[in-house]
Design goal:
The complex is a heteropentamer. By secondary structure, chain A is mainly alpha-helical. Chain A has two domains: about 210 residues, no CATH class; about 80 residues, no CATH class. Chain A contains 14 helices and six strands. Chain B has a domain of about 60 residues. In chain B, about 35% of the residues lie in helices and about 25% in strands. Chain B is built from nine helices and ten strands. A six-stranded mixed β-sheet of chain B has the order 6-7-8-3-9-10, with helices on both faces. A four-stranded antiparallel β-sheet of chain B has the order 2-1-4-5, with helices on one face. In chain B, helix 3 runs parallel beside helix 5. Chain B is globular and about 50 Å long. Chain C has a single domain, classed as Rossmann fold. Chain C has ten helices and ten strands. In chain C, strands 6-7-8-3-9-10 form a six-stranded mixed β-sheet, sandwiched between helices. In chain C, strands 2-1-4-5 form a four-stranded antiparallel β-sheet, covered by helices on one side. By secondary structure, chain D is an all-alpha fold. In chain D, strand 1 and strand 2 form a beta hairpin. Chain D starts with a helix and ends with a helix. At the D-E interface, helix 1, strand 2, helix 5, helix 10 and helix 11 of D face helix 1, strand 8, helix 6 and helix 7 of E. The structure holds adenosine-5'-triphosphate (2 copies), urea and magnesium ion (2 copies). One magnesium ion binds next to helix 1 of chain B. Chain B: InterPro entries: AAA+_ATPase (IPR003593), ABC_AA/LPS_Transport (IPR051120), ABC_transporter-like_ATP-bd (IPR003439), P-loop_NTPase (IPR027417). Chain B: Keywords: ATP-binding, Nucleotide-binding, Transport. Chain B: It comes from Jiella sonneratiae. Chain B: Pfam families: ABC_tran. Chain B: This is ABC transporter ATP-binding protein.
């Protein structure tokens, strides 16, 4: 009985002041979108399915940054550090210990935990040192750039962990894809339908879990710290712990992105921790609407797909067009494009209703 | 045993001696007012008690324990709570949520909502419950901040100019609120420039001047003190 | 001497993001008057002050200064017409020194209307508020609350305004300096004919300064009190209670 | 003698790094330090200054005039950008990251499309001097002098001129500055223009020594940002000592262990300094002084 | 049999950091494809290009390699400038059993049957260049190299060849990518007083070295395998900053023979704005014709059929640079290696030319793609021979 009610109260946290969207309308929409996502592979070719898995891979990092920045108010410019650390960790683990007996999944968990541990150490250093604002951004950026520069020069054979060569700027390859042990022979999850469902399931799980986190007591404190850290502390909260908690969870998600990306392409490179890559999550999250998980998620997928499409069809004008999109949409949509599009839509609806009424 | 006591408390800002060897003490259940000229160091004294600043010397004792080096949140958890001079609320959150964050550690579910409603009523913010706190008027922000401070059910409540910007009636109501809390056993230390308010609530008054304890006594003693009149109250100070 | 109307609002509406706060405010202030605006928390007093200086656009109605409409005039140009605004909550420039804060106020007098030189006015302000002189190199953000309030008032006096808008000037100020401020304002008014509109809750200050008083409630002027009623402390208090 | 020449050598290396950090950072310090705008297009203003001054030099304009021209054009472009876009974002400074990143993409790729993948250099003037058997580029000494002069002029502008006071007031509490008669919209444009112009100056000064390509700005951006942030809120109190500390660390590590150590050491120094002084050097200096 | 067009995916950086050196590669492919199509296509089939701009971003290579192989179903891909981008897409090529041409000089060592490399490799460029330089200028050598795989492995080659020829290393310095300031490096070189300097600088930022060195009055003979031929620094910097620089390249615009001249002429006719036709542009052009030959001989675009053709060992052609052949063991290409000397006024002369320099190293260390396909990249210090013995 008590477990029942605690499950109930946990589920109640799926809605709350910290997340947009509530009530039957939202959840039916959610179910429809999820159902569409589930039947999508039936109608798409292998490329589209694999490509969508690739987009999903990045969404975890974006959701994590939304938690740290959008909810917690701490702009980390270096989430790519955790992405990279976890990606390399997955590579090192699986190259050394192989892919049998489901070890790739053990590696996925371990690599994510390694990223979380790294975030815990760095976060302790940051938050318990009372570093905030841009200072936090620059320290995290510096960390990711140090990792990038260091990893770039590990081309020599002396740089190896076990049998895994770090392989410098060219990047580490040859790690196995995620592999499910199976009686009749292991199932290797190439970027295809099974991997699609796996990643989608993970994404839905993480999204729902994060909704519960941000609407919980913990989430309340996190937004309180964003609004006014001094007041939050004067309500008796040890704000450093909460900031650290948010940072570790968000960074673990960046790590998860890193693992999934590495397993997806069998490749991880120091460039994925560089300046340009570090700026990308910030762009996705800011464009989508950073202070809500749903807008972050949708915005990230939209930006990723949009920019890729532009690159495919825009040739060398693609970058100019992307730039224009950012320059135009961000000032026009203060709470992100998702809400911007939403309110445009509802305004249009209202206007039409008004016209019909007349 | 004193609820709050400081011994030889010292604070320097560069060359400025802002808190100068302050020995202060108040008893449990007391309503104590701290007054003094602008810049006397009243707010700084609060910040020292709260751990926002660390003192350069001296000790702070709360409820018998030495909290001189304790972290702010630890002091709050021990039962101190504060309304700052400049309201510090969660601007982008709704009024209701501001209160929820203050209350959620003690209450949950239905009783949490009830308590929030009760507080909103009391703070005259019922109509503004769904408004973003940042869009409240100055006075409403002060009320909200007071509400968050008392929501913690403190043993010692620090109020830095709680009635600034309030009408005489509102000031009086605030005084009654303080008295009601005090009747429930809350000790109150308030900074005020409004002598009517001080007269209404204070059981004892301490005057700070240039960071030092300048005078101490009942409100009548203080008002009668010509030195205090000279530095602080002026001609019509005897409210 | 017939006094001109210096400042006038006609059916003024304004608010925040579509939500109306002022709902048709009519008032007129004669040149050289000291007028108080009183009312409970949240009735729109500060909103009125912001609309007068132009920090909030008005949705309907207009503000007239010396008979000219200010509707299309941005705040900084209104200030340069000689309107000095002291906001509620002081808003000093926190990372600038006291002296630098004061110098910003010179912009009000960009046209050089003031008869006295800036240096003289600076000395005058230092004379009114000696603490500002003593702390002229301290960063304003580290001043005490009351010190900041004095700075905020001094900052507009530097610009030799012909109209001062004061939003709760006594807030956070020690009693004897409240009296000083009231005295200074009255003195200035007598000497230079400066016009003052101030929002206030402190009865002593209202009575010490105001020649006339508007009472606000729910975004409207609900009463106007003359000098005779102002004499009566309890009567004023009743207006504030509503 | 040998000691003196190695001393000169170290001073030259540190001065060289100092000049690079100061000149890269000044424009950013004005735009970020003063306005809170995180300008990721900083490198493209440097690019603009470099391209304009180089083109002018190719047309026969004397180098100092070309550099001035680069500065002015970059400044003017900055003012336009401020008018058109940045001013809509002052109440949400973090969004400027995204918008200026977009501007940077447009500028970089636009340059590539319009002007091609590279521009020919002009060569470095002034030749070299010899000290203790080593040749040193004289132009690098000019860069050091320019860095110091830039700092001095900025300090004068911001503390000794009315514009400086009004700019700082505007940036700290814009609506109050406006209500006190300050034309804040003009102040914003001028301040942003000044920052952009300083970036242009950096580009003009370094153009003769570098590869001229559309992506050249990125060589400056990281160093500029870390210098400004390590400096902290006050650009004059902060940027110069930050540049000095970072320059010494970088020069020492580079000469001791090579470029990688210099690069990583610089970043690690940033992390350590911020950890020790969480409000940057400004916070530290002010606390000591007050 | 099949009569549809032959589809070729092209993944090259037309924007971003590497665009300086790679826009020309796309043009080379387009030029060859147009010529081939005008002459009736390959085996009667038109050649169709699917071109993507990879923006100097490894991620785009991963995205688009999947796209061309899975969606566009191309028969062959021409892809990549930096070695990192090649390593980023190689797992995908291997997974889908695609066929990719990497038309770029690089650090060498890729032993992968799904890859064909037309660019020059260290043994071709250094075994010629270093002995020549040592003989001409002396045996004390200083290397500055980009601090990543290409630079480190190339530096290793230089070191080994210098030692073999009885020389000494006066110094070796590695520069992280993106570094643009060289005062300290310049001083280190001055201190070491080498007889000549090997510059293995990569990327536009590092190229700033040359300008900064001259302005500090550092005039030491220079040798390189990568500069000039790839980044045409002699065109981008004002003379004489690259004077006295010696480069081994398999072709550059200035190569003075009739085939080369005709090639340059028809190129400029089609692409009048091309700032410079570099070595990789020519490699890309050649690669299209080599592919044509393979398909025509295999009568199919099937990879196994094509590899059988390669295994015959006589996939050769007369290119603008001279006669070239594909080595069946490594699927790398032999080259004519030109020693280009940059003069005071940045004009180019060719003191020496080596014909038919083979990519021998991979075969020597045990790569034989006709027998097995390890899909690996070997380095001098990490290869089957080393681990075997
Ligand atoms: N961070 C600081 N740095 C330097 N001086 C400071 C700092 N904080 C406060 N001061 C100075 O310390 C003195 C005491 O300030 P405090 O705010 O405690 O005064 P107060 O008694 O609360 O005054 P008020 O009644 O005006 O609020 C003032 O002179 C103020 O300028
Ligand atoms: N920035 C804002 N956005 C939205 N609503 C606002 C904003 N500022 C004030 N309000 C609302 O406008 C109303 C009037 O506010 P105003 O500040 O003018 O009151 P006031 O009369 O000055 O009160 P006080 O005595 O508390 O200062 C209040 O209901 C307040 O909630
Ligand atoms: N392949 C190269 N030059 O990186
Ligand atoms: Mg105070
Ligand atoms: Mg108000």
């Amino acid at each position: 009985m008590p477990s029942h009610s605690s499950l109930g109260s946990a589920l109640r946290l799926l809605e709350g002041p910290q997340t947009l969207g509530k009530g039957p309308a939202f959840w039916s929409g959610f179910v429809v979108v999820l159902a569409l996502a589930c039947i999508y592979p039936l109608f798409a070719d292998g490329y589209d399915v694999g490509n969508n898995v690739y987009f999903f891979n990045w969404a975890f990092m974006a959701l994590g940054l939304s938690l740290i920045w959008g909810y917690g108010g701490a702009l980390s410019f270096g989430q790519t550090a955790f992405f990279g650390v976890a990606g390399y960790a997955y590579g090192v683990l699986t190259i050394n210990f192989g892919d049998a007996y489901g070890f790739t999944f053990v590696s996925l968990v371990l690599a994510t935990l390694i990223a979380a541990l790294f975030a815990a150490v760095l976060g302790y250093f940051l938050f318990f040192g009372r570093i905030s604002g841009v200072f936090l951004g620059i320290v995290t950026l510096s960390v990711t750039l140090v990792l990038e520069r260091f990893m770039s020069q590990t081309a020599g054979p002396e740089w190896h962990i076990g049998s895994a060569r770090l392989n410098g700027f060219n990047g580490m390859g040859n790690m196995p894809s995620l592999t499910i042990p199976w009686p009749g022979g292991d199932v290797v999850l190439y970027p295809d339908v099974p991997l699609y469902y796996l990643t989608l399931a993970l994404l839905v799980l993480v999204y729902l879990a994060l909704r519960m986190v941000v609407n919980s007591r913990f989430g309340n404190v996190l937004v309180a710290i964003r609004e006014n850290p001094q007041r939050a502390e004067m309500l008796g909260y040890d704000i450093r712990r909460y900031q650290l908690g948010g940072f570790v969870v968000g960074s673990a998600l960046a790590g998860l992105s890193g693992v999934l990306y590495t397993a997806w392409g069998n490749y991880i490179t120091p460039s994925s921790m560089g300046m340009t890559q570090a700026a990308l999550p910030i762009v996705w999250v800011a464009v989508g609407g950073r202070s809500d998980l749903t807008t972050t998620l949708l915005g990230t997928l939209l930006v990723l797909a949009g920019f890729q499409a532009l690159t495919i069809y825009g040739s060398q004008y693609a970058l100019v067009a992307m730039g224009f999109l950012l320059v135009v949409t961000v000032p026009a949509a203060p709470s992100g494009i998702i809400i911007g599009i939403g309110s445009l839509f509802s305004r249009g609806l209202k206007r039409r209703k008004a016209r019909e009424a007349r | 045993m004193a609820i709050l006591q400081t011994r030889g408390l010292d604070k320097w800002f560069g060359g400025l001696h802002v808190t100068d060897n302050v020995d202060f003490s108040m008893q449990p259940g007391e309503v104590h007012c701290l007054i003094g000229p602008n810049g006397a160091g009243k707010s700084t004294f609060f910040r020292l008690v709260l751990g926002e600043h660390l003192p350069n010397g001296g000790a702070i004792l709360y409820d018998g324990a030495d909290i001189t080096r304790a972290k702010s949140y630890q002091r709050i958890r021990r039962g101190i709570s504060v309304k700052f001079q400049v309201p510090g609320i969660f601007k982008a959150l709704k009024v209701r949520q501001n209160l929820q964050i203050a209350l959620q550690d003690h209450l949950s579910g239905h009783s949490l909502n009830e308590e929030i409603d009760r507080l909103l009523e009391f703070l005259k913010l019922k109509d503004a419950a769904g408004q973003l706190a940042g869009s409240l008027s100055h006075g409403q922000k002060q009320w909200l901040e007071i509400g968050m401070a008392i929501a913690l059910k403190p043993k010692l409540l620090l109020l830095d100019e709680p009635t600034a910007g309030m009408t005489p009636d509102e000031t009086h109501a605030t005084g009654e609120m303080v008295q009601a809390l005090n009747a429930d056993g809350v000790s109150v230390l308030a900074v005020e420039h409004d002598m009517a308010f001080v007269r209404q609530i204070a059981q004892r008054v301490t005057v700070l001047h240039f960071g030092r304890v300048f005078a101490q006594g009942t409100i009548d003693e203080i008002v009668a003190d010509e030195r205090v009149a000279a530095i602080y109250l002026g001609e019509t100070g005897h409210a | 001497m017939r006094r001109e109307v210096l400042l006038e609002t006609i059916g003024l509406w304004s608010g925040y993001g579509g939500k109306p706060v002022l709902q048709g405010v009519d008032l007129d202030i004669l040149e050289g008057q000291i007028v108080a605006v009183i009312g409970r928390n949240g009735v729109g007093k500060s909103t009125l002050m912001k609309s007068l200086i132009g920090l909030l656009p008005c949705d309907r109605g207009s503000v007239l200064f010396r008979g000219e409409t200010l509707d299309a005039v941005p705040a900084h140009r209104r200030a340069r017409l000689g309107i000095g605004y002291v906001p509620q909550g002081r808003d000093v420039f926190p990372r600038m020194s006291v002296a630098e804060n004061l110098l910003v106020g010179r912009s009000i007098d960009a046209g050089g209307r003031g008869e006295t030189s800036v240096a003289e006015r600076l000395e005058q302000v230092y004379g009114y508020f000696p603490i500002l002189k003593e702390r002229r190199n301290q960063r304003a953000g580290t001043l005490s609350g009351g010190q900041q309030q004095q700075l905020a008032i001094g900052r507009v006096l530097i610009g030799a305004p012909s109209l001062i808008l004061l939003d709760e000037p006594s807030e956070g100020i020690q009693p004897n300096i409240v009296q000083d401020i009231a005295r200074i304002m009255v003195e200035l008014n007598e000497k230079t004919g400066i016009t003052v509109v101030f929002v206030e809750q402190n009865l002593d200050m209202i009575r010490a300064m105001a020649q006339r008083c508007y009472v606000m409630d729910k975004g409207r002027i609900t009463a106007e009190i003359g000098a005779d009623v102002l004499e009566d402390r309890d009567a004023v208090r009743r207006y504030l209670a509503v | 003698m040998d000691f003196l020449s190695s001393l000169f050598s170290f001073a030259y290396q540190a001065g060289d790094a100092f000049a690079f950090l100061v000149l890269s950072a000044c424009g950013l310090a004005v735009i970020f330090g003063m306005m809170g705008v995180i300008n990721l297009a900083h490198g493209e203003f440097i690019l603009c200054g470099a391209y304009v001054s180089t083109s002018a030099t190719h047309l026969g304009v004397p180098l100092p005039v070309s550099i001035l021209l680069g500065t002015l054009v970059a400044g003017a472009v900055g003012m336009l950008l401020e008018r058109a876009i940045i001013r809509h974002l002052y109440d949400r400074p973090l969004d400027t990251i995204v918008v200026t990143w977009g501007v940077s993409m447009i500028a970089t790729q636009g340059t590539l499309i319009l002007l091609g993948s590279t521009m020919q250099g002009t060569g470095t003037p002034f030749g070299s001097i010899e000290v203790g058997g080593y040749g040193y580029s004289v132009y690098r000494l000019v860069l050091m002098a320019a860095a110091v002069a830039t700092l001095a002029v900025l300090w004068l502008i911001f503390t000794r001129t009315r514009f400086g006071i009004l700019a700082r007031a505007t940036i700290q509490v814009p609506h109050i500055a406006e209500a006190l008669g300050v034309n804040t919209s003009l102040v914003y444009s001028l301040t942003f223009g000044l920052g952009a112009g300083l970036a242009g100056l950096c580009g003009g000064l370094y153009a003769p020594t570098m590869t001229l390509v559309p992506t050249m700005g990125s060589a400056f951006v990281v160093e500029a940002f870390v210098t400004v942030v390590v400096g902290g809120a006050d650009i004059f109190l902060g940027t110069a000592p930050a540049a000095a500390i970072l320059a010494v660390v970088k020069a020492a590590l580079t000469s001791w262990e090579g470029q990688l150590a210099g690069q990583i050491g610089l970043l690690v120094a940033v992390i350590i300094v911020i950890r020790v002084l969480p409000r940057g050097l400004t916070g530290f200096i002010l606390r000591e002084r007050a | 049999e099949e009569k549809g067009p032959i589809k070729m995916g092209v993944l090259e950086d037309q924007s971003g950091d590497f665009a300086v050196a790679t826009i020309g590669k796309v043009h080379g492919i387009q030029l060859a494809a147009d010529e081939i199509n005008a002459a009736g296509g390959i085996d009667g089939r038109k050649l169709e290009l699917d071109i993507y701009d990879t923006q100097s971003d490894n991620r785009r290579y991963q995205e688009f390699m999947r796209r061309v192989l899975q969606r566009d179903k191309v028969d062959v891909v021409f892809a990549g400038f930096s070695s990192a981008s090649r390593e980023a897409y190689r797992p995908i090529v291997d997974q889908f059993k695609g066929l990719a041409f990497y038309n770029n000089q690089y650090e060498g060592g890729v032993c992968d049957a799904n890859m064909i490399v037309t660019g020059a490799v260290p043994e071709q460029q250094f075994s010629t260049l270093i002995p020549y330089m040592m003989e001409k200028f002396g045996k004390n050598v200083y290397t500055i190299a980009a601090d990543y795989n290409f630079g480190q492995i190339s530096a290793e080659w230089v070191r080994d060849i210098v030692k073999e020829n009885g020389g000494t290393m006066a110094g070796e310095e590695f520069i992280p990518l993106g570094v643009s300031q060289f005062s300290q490096t310049i001083q280190n070189i001055q201190k070491a007083k080498p007889d000549f300097l090997v510059t293995l600088l990569v990327g536009t930022a590092q190229a700033s070295y040359y300008e900064q060195a001259v302005s500090a009055n550092l005039h030491v003979p220079m040798a390189s395998s990568v500069n000039v031929g790839q980044g045409y620094e002699h065109k981008r910097f004002k003379p004489p900053s690259l004077a006295n620089m010696y480069v081994t390249t398999n072709w550059i615009e200035e190569v003075d023979n009739p085939a080369s001249k005709a090639f340059v002429e028809k190129w400029h006719k089609k692409f009048p704005d091309e700032p410079y036709i570099n070595q990789e542009a020519e490699n890309s052009y050649i690669a299209v014709y080599l592919y044509k030959q393979m398909v025509e001989r295999a009568h199919s675009t099937d990879h196994d059929a094509i590899r059988k053709v390669i295994a015959e060992g006589d996939v050769c052609m007369d290119a603008p640079e001279g006669h070239v052949c594909i080595d069946p063991k490594s699927q790398h290409m032999s080259h004519t290696i030109y020693l280009a000397k940059v003069n005071e006024d940045h004009s180019i002369s060719f003191p020496k030319v080596w014909d038919d320099i083979k990519p021998y190293w991979l075969g020597e260390v045990g790569c034989d793609l006709t027998k097995e396909n390890p899909e690996a990249q070997y380095t001098p210090s990490d290869n089957p021979k080393k681990s075997g013995g």
